[in-house]
Design goal:
With 69 residues, the chain is α+β, with helices and mostly antiparallel strands. It has one domain. Helix content is 46%, strand content 12%. It has a two-stranded antiparallel sheet with strand order 1-2. Strand 1 and strand 2 form a beta hairpin. It is extended, with a radius of gyration of 15 Å.
Length: 69
Amino acid sequence: MREKCRYNYKGKDTYAFVMSDRYIMALYTYCLSARKAVALENIEMEGLSEAELSMVKLESVREYFMIIG
């Protein structure tokens, strides 16, 4: 299984997993709602840098495709 998902991208080894459109949309929706909950509740995210926290809170995101790209 591990070798099946292994790819070389721009000279670096990485892993990718094939997912259906429905699964990708469900995962995207889940991540978006989790990020919204964190932003609305001001949940402290221990160990995250300011840049990572701004990503969680969707700050400076012009288009949603930036999130899943």
